[in-house]
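Give me the fold.
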Amino acid sequence: MRCGCGCGRKTIKSPECRSDTIKRNGSLNTIKSPEEKITAVEEAVKWLRGGGVLRGAKEVRELAKADSKARTKLALLGAIPPLVAMLETEDLDSQISALYALLNIGIGNDENKSAIVEAGVVHKMLKLVESPSSPNPDLTAVIIANFLGLSALDSNKSIIGSSGAISFLIKTLKSLIEANTGDISSQVIQDCLRALYNLSILVTNVSLMVEVNGFVTFLLTTVGGDTEISDRILSILTNVVSTPEGRHVVSSVDDVFTILVDVLSWMDSPSCQEKAIYVLMVMAYKSSEDQQAMIAVGIMSSLLELTLLGSALAQKRSSRTLEILRDKKGKQVSENSGGGGGATLSAPLCGSGDDADSLDSPNGFSSKNAVKHLVEQSLHNNMRKIVKRANLRQEFLSVERYKSSVASFSSSKSLPF
């Protein structure tokens, strides 16, 4: 079930998402004409400027839910400064109501998002969560939602990133995932990840993120569990590896390439595969050491399988990564084949000199048999991985044992080669 505030967020236990239980002013229930809407907006702003700020905040929140014109009018009449000022009060209900009103005013309106940040909301929100005691969960949820909405505007990314919000978002994300608090916090986790992704689009913010001790390691070790969370994390990593500093931190994480190759081999989500291969492609292109590490963990068979059977984007990225790694192995393949020309694309992908010789021999395979050979080798490599993970003895794995199933697979699939 979705929240009625118009932000598209799933229901959580917070005042905004329990809007049906809030006592609305009678005029808000009967508004129909544009003139009545304008009057209601003007009245709400008067409450904010007068002695009824809490009532004004709740009315603004309701008026701005699904009415873009009301959001514009509220900002023009000066609703934003008094709402931001309410964050300095000691009353939790006033703080939460003001934050949800600001969240709704900013929906789909870049000018309002800019004005909210200019009014000083970022530092005031951080001050609310810097108290020695644990912040109220509902307050934390709406603050994160505001960071998500405000960070979507490019001009706000630098201000939010340099404010200390990145550390707050990372700390909250880690605590929620490690606590495994379940469905109540699942939307807050998603909002944290989406806000961090928005901020990671700006290169200077990537530097701030990777400086947070253990953050990149935490992201990578969290990949592979929940598919939706993994997809968000991989989105962040695609921005992290866009900088030399980010690539260095990623490559220094233990088993990083094993983790990413596992995404290619074991996760069914095409989106996760596409993003993981993008990270690997960028790192392979930029570093020969990373190329060697990828090859060592058996990336070739996973890339080959995606090139044949993955989504269109995964095929394209896998093919490009294979070309990069093929160039790395080119000299070795050339030596193994005696320096002869005409080596096919499959030769360096199969990973051994013997395979290259057989494919280039006078009695070499036809195109159809070459594809069959590639699929057979990919399946063979994957079976070896499965056996290794299951801690079975290597002698239990025999190509002949699976030959009939491989032949059946090869003949029954229409391969996009």
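The first helix runs from residue 26 to 29.
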